[in-house]
Write a structure and sequence with these properties.
The protein is an all-alpha fold. It has one domain (68-431): Na+/H+ antiporter like fold (Up-down Bundle), CATH 1.20.1530. The chain has 21 helices and no strands. The protein has helices at 2-15, 19-39, 44-55, 65-70, 72-87, 92-98, 101-123, 128-138, 143-153, 158-189, 199-209, 211-241, 247-267, 272-286, 291-297, 301-314, 324-351, 356-361, 371-381, 384-387, 391-431. The radius of gyration is 22 Å and the shape is globular. The relative contact order is 0.16.
C-alpha cells in the first residue's frame, strides 16, 4: 500500500509540472463542484473556489504556488473580459436614467466602509495608522463575482444597471481612497512617534513636506492614464469592427486589443480593470451595433470565469487563519466591512431616493472581495516606507496581509451565495 501511495505521489509531482494538466484539473473538478453547488442553491463560483482550494497546496498539492503563478495570464485575461463587460453597461442613455443615484450610493458606501472598519479595528487595539490602511483596503469589492452571478442568472433591468454602475465606480473610489489614506499614513509611520496624540502633527508634517501630495497625484495619474488608454483602445476596436460581419473576425479583433490593453496596463503599472472598463464604455457609446462585440465574447466567459475563481482558490491557505490575533482582527474586519457596505448602500440609496429593492438588497451584493484588495495590501508590503519600519511594525504589516487573505477567503465563499440571494430577491421585487 505504501508503494502504491508513493507511486501516486510521484505521478502527481510529474503531471503537476505541466500547465495543461493543471488547467484541465481545475476545469473538470471546478465543473463538478460547480454543479454540486448549484444543486444546493449556491453559486457555481463557490464550487470553482473550493476546487482550487482542494487542488492547491492547502490540500492535495497538485497545483503548487509556482504553477498558479504561471497561470496568471488566465487571471489577467479574465479580469480584462470582466472589466470590459462592466464598461459595456455604461451607455450614456443608462447613465442619464440613473443620474446622480449611482455616484451618491458609491460615495456613501465607500466612506462608511472606511470609517466602520477603521474605528472597529482601532477599538480592538490595532494602532490607528494600520487600522486606517485596512479601512481603505476594505472599500474594494470584486466585480468578477458580481458579473458571473448576474450572467448566470441572465438578469437584466434597473437593479442590475445600478449594481454594475456601483461596482464599476467602487474600484475607482477604492484606489483614490487608498492613495489618500496611504499618503497620510506614510507620514505618520515615518514620524518619530505613532501614538494617538501625535497623529495630527504627523499628518501636518506629511502635507508640509509634500510627500503625501506626490502619492495622491500618482494615484490620480494612474486612474487618468488608465481611462485615457482604455478609451483609445475602445475607439480602435470600434473602428476595426465597424464593417466586419464575420463573427470570427470580430472575436479576433476584440480579444487582440483586450490582450494588448491588459498587457500594456500591467507593464506600465496602470489599472487593467479601469482601462478595460473605459474601453467597454467607449465602445458601447460609439454605436449601439457594438453590442455584437460583447455578444461574441460571451461564449468565452464560462471557462475563463471557472479558471479565474479556481486559480484564486489555489492561493488560499486556511491554516494561517487559525492564529489568535489574525482570527480575531480578521473577523472584526469582515463584519465591520459588511456593516459598512450594507449600511452605506442603504444610506446612499435613501439620500438618492432609490427604489426599495435597491435600498434593501444592493448592499449585500458588495460583499465579495478579491484581487484589488490583495494587490493593494501587497503593494503596502513592498513599499519603501515599510522597509524603514521597526520589527514590531513590520509584523503588523504581515498580519494585515493575512487579515486581507482571511477576508478574501471568507467573502469569496460566503459573498457569492449572499449576492445571488440578494439579486434574486431584488429582481422579484422589481417585477412584482
Amino acid at each position: 500500500m505504501g508503494e502504491i501511495l508513493s507511486d501516486l505521489t510521484d505521478l502527481r509531482n510529474i503531471m503537476s509540472q505541466h500547465g495543461l494538466f493543471s488547467t484541465g484539473m481545475l476545469l473538470i473538478l471546478g465543473y463538478f463542484l460547480g454543479k454540486l453547488m448549484a444543486r444546493i442553491h449556491l453559486p457555481e463560483i463557490t464550487g470553482y473556489i473550493i476546487a482550487g482550494l482542494i487542488l492547491g497546496d492547502a490540500a492535495l498539492g497538485i497545483i503548487h504556488q509556482e504553477m498558479s503563478e504561471s497561470l496568471q495570464i488566465v487571471t489577467d485575461v479574465a479580469l480584462g473580459l470582466i472589466a470590459l463587460t462592466i464598461g459595456g453597461e455604461f451607455s450614456m442613455s443608462k447613465l442619464k436614467r440613473m443620474g446622480s443615484e449611482v455616484v451618491i450610493i458609491t460615495l456613501a458606501q465607500v466612506l462608511l466602509t472606511l470609517i466602520a472598519v477603521t474605528l472597529a479595528l482601532w477599538l480592538f487595539k490595532l494602532p490607528l495608522p494600520f487600522a486606517m490602511m485596512l479601512g481603505a483596503l476594505a472599500t474594494a469589492t470584486a466585480p468578477a463575482a458580481t458579473v458571473a452571478i448576474v450572467q448566470s442568472l441572465r438578469a437584466h433591468g434597473p437593479f442590475v444597471d445600478r449594481l454594475y454602475g456601483i461596482v464599476a465606480l467602487d474600484d475607482a473610489g477604492a484606489v483614490i481612497i487608498f492613495g489618500i489614506v496611504f499618503a497620510v499614513v506614510s507620514g505618520i509611520l515615518t514620524s518619530d512617534t505613532i501614538a494617538g496624540a501625535a497623529v495630527g502633527e504627523a499628518v501636518a508634517s506629511t502635507i508640509h513636506k509634500g510627500g503625501g501630495f506626490a502619492i495622491i497625484f500618482g494615484a490620480f495619474k494612474e486612474i487618468l492614464l488608465s481611462i485615457l488608454m482604455g478609451g483609445a483602445a475602445g475607439w480602435i476596436i470600434h473602428a476595426l469592427a465597424r464593417n466586419k460581419k464575420n463573427t470570427g473576425e470580430l472575436m479576433i479583433i476584440s480579444l487582440g486589443w483586450i490582450f494588448l490593453l491588459t498587457a500594456i496596463s500591467l507593464v506600465f503599472h496602470l489599472s487593467a480593470i479601469l482601462a478595460n472598463m473605459a474601453a467597454g464604455m467607449v465602445l458601447i457609446n460609439l454605436s449601439p451595433r457594438n453590442h455584437r462585440v460583447f455578444r461574441n465574447l460571451e461564449p468565452l466567459t464560462p471557462p475563463m470565469y471557472a479558471l479565474f475563481f479556481a486559480i484564486a482558490g489555489t492561493e488560499l491557505n486556511p491554516a494561517i487563519f487559525l492564529k489568535g490575533n489574525i482570527l480575531i482582527l480578521g473577523l472584526v474586519f469582515i463584519f465591520a466591512r459588511a456593516a459598512g457596505k450594507i449600511l452605506g448602500v442603504w444610506s446612499g440609496a435613501v439620500l438618492a431616493k432609490s427604489k426599495n429593492n435597491v435600498r434593501k438588497y444592493l448592499g449585500f451584493c458588495m460583499l465579495p472581495q478579491a484581487g484589488v484588495a490583495i494587490g493593494l495590501v501587497l503593494m503596502i508590503q513592498a513599499s519603501p516606507v515599510v522597509a524603514t519600519l521597526g520589527p514590531a511594525q513590520k509584523d503588523i504589516i504581515t498580519m494585515m496581509v493575512n487579515i486581507i487573505l482571511l477576508s478574501v477567503f471568507f467573502n469569496e465563499l460566503v459573498g457569492p451565495p449572499v449576492s445571488k440571494m440578494a439579486i434574486v430577491k431584488a429582481l422579484d421585487m422589481e417585477v412584482s
